[in-house]
Amino acid sequence: MISRCEDRNACQLPLRSYGEIMSASDHQHDRPLLALLIRLLGIAGFASMAALIKLASQRGIHLAEIIFWRQFVTVPILFLWAMMSGGIAQLGTQRPRAHFVRGLYGIAGMLCNFGAVILLPLAEAQTINFSAPIFAVLLSIVLLKESVGFWRWGAVGAGFLGIVIIAQPGGGHIPLTGALVALGGAFMIALISIQIRDLSRTDKPVVIVFWFAVTSVVLFIPFQPFVMQHHSWENWLLLLAIGLTGTWGQLLVTVALRYGKVSSVIVMDYSSIIWATLFGWLLFSALPPATTWLGAPLIVVAGLTIAWRERVVAHRRFSDLRGTAGT
Question: Distance (Å, rounded) from C-alpha 32 to C-alpha 39?
Fold first, then answer.
C-alpha cells in the first residue's frame, strides 16, 4: 500500500535490505503467530489509509494537505507514547542530518505512493507497489555491490513482466502516468530501506518514525496557506482518520518485526491486495480487470522468491561466520 513507506516503507523488502534492521538479540522474543496477526492488522491499517486518501482527493483536498495532516497526527501520538513509556529523551537522536535526508526521501516516496492511489484504482496501485523488492535487488547491485544469482534475476524479470501486463503501456485500462508514479513510489521504498538500515544501527524504529513525521510537517507547513481549505466536519474527520490509520499501520508493522522475522511475516503484506480490491469495490465501484489478475501473481511470486533467496543467503552467511569463528 502506500506509505509503506513511510516506514512501512521497507516492509516488503528483502532480508538484506530490511531484516538486518532488527537486532539479533530480538530472536529470543520470536512469536511467529502473533507476529503474523500483528502484521496483518498493520497492513489493514495501511489499506484503510489508502482508501481514505483516495476519498479525500475526490472531495477536493490537495495532496500536500493530505500529507501534512497524515504526518502531523503522528507527532503527538508518538510524543505522548514516549512520555508514558520512559520520557521524551528516548526520542532524541545524534544523527539529525541523516534523519533530514531520510525525511526528504520519505516525502518523495509519499508523493509518489499517495499520488498513485489518487491516479490509479486501488488494486492496481497496490499491486505495482509490490515491485519494491525488485528495485531493492537492483539497488543492492548498484549501491551494495552485491552479486545476484539466477533466482533473484529470474524474480526481477518475472516481476517486471507482471508490471507490463498490468500497465499495458500504450493501451491499458490505467493511465501510463499513474503507473510510472506508482513505480517511482516502489523505487523510493527500496531506496529508503537502505537509509533505514543505516539509521537503525543507532536509533530505534520509533525514533526514525518520529523524526520522519517531524521533518515532513516542518517542510510542508509553508505550502499550507496555498493549499489548505475551509473543511466541513466530515473532511476533518477524514483527515484525522488518514493520520490515525497511517500511524496504526506504521506502528504495527514495526511491532510485528519484534516477534517475527521479516522473511516470515512478509507474506501478510500481500493481503493488502484483498483489502484494496474490497475497498475499491465497496467505495469506488471498481474491480480489477483480467490483466491485473494475470500480472499480480507474477509480482507477488517475484517478491516472495526474493525474500526466500535473501533468507537463504543470510543463513549461509551466518553459517560461514559461525564456521570461521569456530576455527
Answer: 10
The secondary structure of 209-230, three-state, reads HHHHHHHHHHHHHHHHHHHCCC
Any domain includes 65? yes
Residue at 24 is within a domain:
yes
Decide if 283 is inside a domain: yes
List, for residues 162-204, the tens digit of each pLDDT value: 888 887 766 667 888 888 999 999 888 888 877 777 787 888 8
- Helix, strand, coil percentages (3-state) for the chain, rounded to 5, are 80, 0, 20
Q: Which of 114, 106, 112, 109 is nearest to 210 (CA)?
A: 106
Please state, in angstroms and rounded to a whole number, the distance separating the CA atoms of residues 52 and 55: 5
The count of domains in the chain is 1
How many beta carbons lie within 10 A of that of residue 149, not counting itself? 9
Report the alpha-carbon distance of residue 222 to residue 121 in Å, rounded: 30
Q: How far apart are CA 216 and CA 129, in angstroms?
A: 21
Q: Give the C-alpha separation, 66 to 240, whole Å.
A: 10
Cβ-contact 121, 278 below 8 angstroms:
no
How does pLDDT run across 43-84, given as a tens digit for each residue?
899 999 999 999 999 999 999 999 999 999 999 998 998 888
- Report the distance separating Cα 174 and Cα 128, nearest Å: 12
183 falls within a domain: yes
DSSP-assigned letters across all residues of 221-273: GGGHHHH-----HHHHHHHHHHHHHHHHHHHHHHHHHHHS-HHHHGGGGGGHH
62 in Cβ contact with 227 (< 8 Å): yes
Query: What domain range is 34 assigned to?
Result: 8-326
